[in-house]
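Repro case for the chain-ordering regression, as requested:
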Amino acid sequence: MSATASAPQLSGLRSRVSAVLYRRPWLRAGLLLSGPGAWFVLIYLAALCLLFLSALWSVNSFSGKIEHNWTLENFETLVKVPAYRTIALRTIGIAAAVTVTDIVLAVPFAFFAARVAPRRLRAVLFVAILVPLWSSYLARVFAWRLILAKDGVLNYFLGQVGLGQVNVGYSNWAMWIVFSYIWLPFMILPVWAAIERVPDSYLEASADLGARAWQTVRGVLLPLILPGIVAGSIFTFSLTLGDFITPTLVGGAGSTFIGNVVYQEVGISNNVPFAAAFATVPLVVMGIYLLIARRLGAFEAL
Amino acid sequence: MKLAKIDWALGALCSVLILGAAACGSSSSKSASNLPTSIGKGEGQLNLVAWEGYAEPKWVKPFEASTGCVVHAKYAGSSDEMVTLMRQGGGSQYDMVSASGDASLRLISGGDVAAMNVNLVPEWKNFIPQLQSPPHNTVNGVHYGISLQWGPNSLLYNTKAVTPAPTSWAAIYSPNYKGLVTVPANPIQIADAALYLSKTQPGLGITDPYELTEPQLNAAVKLLKEQRPLIKKYWTGAADEVELFKSGDATIGAAWPLQTNTLEADHVPVKEIIPSEGVTGWADTWMLAAHAKDPNCAYKWVNWVSTPKVQAEQALSFGETPANTKACSYMEEIKKGSCEKYHANAPASYFNSIKFWKTPVKACGNGQNDCMDYTVWQRKWTEITA
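-- result from build under test --
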């Protein structure tokens, strides 16, 4: 008896709850979003806040323990010691060079793949871009180490065709080459998507009005795919900015990145506060970059 | 307007989180340790922080088979990394560390390692006298670990590419080998430069490469900054340097004997020497973590690696000198003439000629307090390598 009696009661409660939810859409949305929202707050924002917070602490050099008194000492060291400025500028400089290189490589390739190549070749190209992403990042960097080493594959082939030797292994040049290779797919894909969205008629109209190929590219195509390029550059720039494995493996004597200093300070010197202070530099750089990117309309292309 | 509201909300949220985090102060406690009087049953595992090449299957496998303690070794590339690993996670993640002299005192003063009972390690009595109670692991008569092996940081070169054969450290500071030099990515490398300067520029008055006043340190840093353009790569581990020599990217550099042995086994034409200025070196100690979870396996391990046979195996595998004087005959068995080559038979004078790694501190040996401590060394090293 009690079971049958409770059933309508439950459904009464249920209908009341659903009625409340129906009448208050904000409550419905709030409940739905509370899970992902809590995740976002705890994992993303709390970690970021802790980062900024610990940048203001210091470490006792003798015992290695963190001291919780507020100080700007870490940021002072960052500004005052020229070595850290050099490292920050090198990191940003190479990230920018890699981004430009990837744009130069990606735009013609994506144009060919999206507009010129026949359907079947297009599929092949698409897979060819994605295949490297299926293999381990480390394996690909190590492969480049073997290619660029003095007795490596590159010098072997150059020697075979009688071009002499190049000495690019373990240098900033090596880093530039490897980074440009590794992040290229992240540039090609958004640019490809952007080029695909440009209507054929625009290019035909430009040609009909007497524009030469180069004028069409510059005046019609590039402005239309700019958001795609900027979206790709967000990937290439930020991924290079935060990397520390490639500099360790293929970099030379003067190839320290911000990431390497952060890794050393945490893993070797146990100075988490200083690492946190230095880690805010790429964050600020990326913040500025994203503001510019938003102005250029990159977020519509993401 | 909406965006501004969200910004406000995020700001408020962040400050709440900050206050919460600030409220959670950390408290740490040090536990006084009582020396064990016997070794109990093994816990089934042993977690080690070790130098590359210190936990080779050759002597780890028999140990695991006879004691049931499964060994997990984490290799560290520098003393700084070892200290950090032993301190992370409350210091209970690892049971033992093969600390060199520049890490051991830091670990002792930081309360990261526990005192050990040398009477539970019978072979300890056969150690050379200098390593029974050396100042880098014995404080006020309390033993914080059992000595293991010691050896030099030697000069390694490719015999085909480097002619005439070098006899001095000057070779790694000379433009003759521009872009072909490799040295360790380790702040303690400053001591190598200081040792070289103590012989070439006596006017600086360097007597101990680890006790440097500001002008002395600056002179060493200047030398290393001039060396920077000559460097191909600062090596981060033994395998890193081996690859540089194999590919021909480096032909000369500072090395451990382990790299020489590995390269010779691969038929790379290399040779190592003790240059005329002398060398820095290491004397390693197995130290027990203050909060070790597997102390019985740890004691079983130090006993095992102290036995003459294992001492000999490790000595020849890495290319270093065993602490146990009884290891000599076993070394001869494995490789004829090796006992003499590694000075395991008459080590006293050779031992005293090596400037062993120790942590630079403010107090100089002469009672003065104006020496540069390790924090300064680390900062200077970043300046050099960046």
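Ordering looks correct now. Confidence is low (pLDDT under 50) at residues 1-6 of chain A.
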